[in-house]
């Protein structure tokens, strides 16, 4: 191992952070701590669901104070750990910070497939999706109010990885490679985060006439990184359309990328990432990309003007 930092992993329910953190701890022979387990035990003791506990925590600072103080104390101990927590990135200042993202329907399916318990029990996919969204937003508002920390801001992290289609073992391989300096070292050193994105969920910003030819299939370790913008939960390619096209055709689960801009950060002198997304991810561009690659992209979360809504 090339360093002695802890690795902290966050992501909403269904993102796979527990599975990834357990396997990574085993591979690196490090102790694992799960703050989610602490919350579930606390909810069970109070006769609540985890969503109810999260909502209650918005009114009772003592709940967050106890958990957050524990995380802060653990971080100050200096022990090298694997930490599964949605806020550890804020307390573990020197840690390698991993953020897992997942398509909401897939996250809901995973949570719904788990054994029912007193603290997490959903009767339908839509109920699971709605509750996961509510819980995530509840947590986000608490973190913003309490610490001014936005869990959705990608620059809080060293590595952002999409777990929608990638297998847990595949993700662990890449997290370990990045942690040990074998993947994305330049991006991690100069301007993190390193992004590992599902090419089937990245939007084009211009039309290409022909799909990129595929010969020898690249891997995340060998592929030249794309240049990416981020608007809300959506990702769009600014440079690297041909590489993205080849990745889609080759069936890659993940492609490496650097983040040029997110939210109101500038892509060009006059367009922020949000503005660039609205201006360039248009109906004709998206539809041409879908026809060319015989795929369907998810409907953009913000549904900008001109983007199709028929899926």
UniProtKB/TrEMBL annotation:
SUPFAM superfamilies named in the record: P-loop containing nucleoside triphosphate hydrolases, ParB/Sulfiredoxin
InterPro entries: P-loop_NTPase, ParB/Sulfiredoxin_sf
Name used for this protein in its record: AAA family ATPase
